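Q: Could you fold this chain for me?
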Amino acid sequence: QVQLVESGGGLVQPGGSLRLSCGASGFTFSNYAITWYRQTPGKGHEFVANIGASGVDRDYADSVRGRFAISRDNVKNMVYLQMTNLKPEDTAIYYCNAWRGSAYDYWGQGTQVTVSS
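A: Sure. Below is the predicted structure, expressed as structure tokens.
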């Protein structure tokens, strides 16, 4: 059974930090690129960051570049999103996605991040 489980969300003040985690099981994790997306009410999924299967290639949305860092551990089947200098506009539900083609597209249930004073 394929599972992606996000954790680490919560309430943080502007300027604060959080580290999101995404644990994977039920598929060959090291073969998949992993992407973090976020979603706010009434909007579609917004790309946040991506990491290639080997962990070498990484990409970020302009809005988070320099503040967020994506990493992965292919032994533990985990992906992380370190978020620093958080802003109120980062408030969203954050999802991790594992992708290896249209037939292999898996999503987690999401974790809420709220940035507010």
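A (continued): The chain has a mean pLDDT of 96.
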